[in-house]
Amino acid sequence: RRRDSEILSLLSQTRLMRTTNAAFSQPNTMLSTINNASSTARITTRTSSTSSFCSSSSSSSPFSASRFCNNNTKNFNAHNDATSSSSSSSTKVFLKTKIYTNSRHNQQSRNRRFVVNSSSSFSTNSATATDVDVSTVTTTSNDKFNWQKNWYPASPVSFLETDAPNAIKILGLEMVVWKTKNGWSCLEDSCPHRRAPLSLGFIDSNKDALVCRYHGWEFAKDGKCVDIPMSIDENANATACNSKKSCASEYPCKVHAGVLWVWPETGADAFLEASVKKCATENFSELQGAGDNEWGMVELPVGYNPALENQFDPSHAEWLHARYDAESNIRSVSEMADFVPMTKFESFDDDTTEGFKVRHGGYNAANSNIDATRVFTAPCSSRSEYLDDKGKPYLSAHILYTPTEPNRTLMFTKFQAYQFTAVQGAGTRKVSVADKIENLFTTPVRNLFNLYIQNFNTIGDARLIFTGLQHGAGNAAYTLGNQDIRAMHGVEKDMKKRGGKWNKAYYLPTVADKGVSAFRTWMDNFTENGNVEWLDGSAVDATPTVSEEEQTERYHRHTKHCRACKAALNELGILEERLLLASKVLLATSLITGFGGALVGNEGLPVLTLSLAGLSLLGVEEVRDMQHEFVSSTPRRGVPKPKLW
Question: Which of 102-130 are b and which e, b meaning 16 or more Cβ less than 10 Å from the residue's Cβ?
Fold first, then answer.
């Protein structure tokens, strides 16, 4: 939001404040000076007390306004309207004009909003007025989206470690989030001493401090250094800790809808802007999701653009995520609803930096009569609502995205199906006779394994481990992701070869393609060169060629981000060690008792212990297979090629 960043600059420019009175008497003159175009103007005044702003911000906002209210009060002091003379009030003048431009956007309408604070040195009902000096107001014919001044989802809260720091990355910026006694804190992941990563450190719960593991410097929730162990005395320690150079920069963060949100900008102004702007989940009702109502999250090894446009291409599910006959390799109609060509797809509300909406119909026999709306809230949210032909809820989906670095994007997912036919995706696999026979043998083993996890786990939290096993020890969700990643990476790589211009590289002749066109057009209209702006100075995605094995790996994609998966993987490792030890003991017992049994003619015990040793070794292999599923999609045995269908 470029306009939002201009607001604070305008507030501090006294020359503009002194002449704001002209806006009340000659608004059209001001607008014509700014735009030099035929336009209409609407002026709205709004007053608010500075003191009430400070008090209400500290109580209702997730951030304390006290840190910047005192320093920036002058930016909010102004005269009240004509009926009030209170010096503690401020008047904000909003000038909203609809500009009609004849450009490549086919005379799209654009919204402009300027915010001006009146100075306390004059009255708003002054009889005389002069033209407003607008030389300091920067406007262009095309608003550009401000990537930095927005909330980004960093992680589902349930994924984060509460007793250790968590490294995150947003728009190339490396940060560390950690749990304090008063909520979450987000700091730059760099100790101001020698620039070692603070995420390498640990949390001192007694002091409620984040400790750098390099030299032991300690930091409070707001990034202030509170102790430097190598200081020669208390005075030296206090002097160093009070220096701004010893502070770690703090980023605004908050929790909403089970997600930790981060505003990737530091400073008092950042906290002010973040406190009045909603994150994407605050604009919609929260979905219940499935199972334990948790968000799913993976870090895709693809860039932001292909990840987002994939979301606005619903018909790809009927082919990329379809079930294919094992023998003929032809799309199986018997295991899923047949596809239906899309006949309705339109975009609207697409002329602002806020995002856009699309409305479309169905794309398979099960949902052919649905009416779907997808709302893109820039830069990170896609919320979909499906209604059936009777107007009843059919399916809701909320998908969030965070560009972490070039060629990598976090994706958060939560779905809520209201009708059975809404569960389409990869379809339902038929249960064969062989599957039923296999279940006769695997079910008792699975029950024994669950009993072990429930009663003999080493962390005392069976639920966390079962959640991790649900995430990692299974292929269904990863298979869908692998299918998307293989396609999106191919798109990304080929686009680079063709110069990155989608409208030259793509051929989009069908109605089903309009969602992709809507997203790409919005990126062209409101971002620089249609790409993400990396805050660490990274270049635009280079899109290197990534091997199929790297594209479909799982540890960096999900496991390392998920507290439950890490706990489950660690527990499986402990179980493997225990099974190995048991097999060794049983084999030794079998050998010893075997000699004795041969002498007395009793071989029952040796045979029993040998059988148990064999079962233990089978268990070891099974556990190793389960661990491998947390790390990679490639098979442990045979050709190392992921099976996508």
Answer: eeeeeeeebebebbbbbbbebebeeeebe
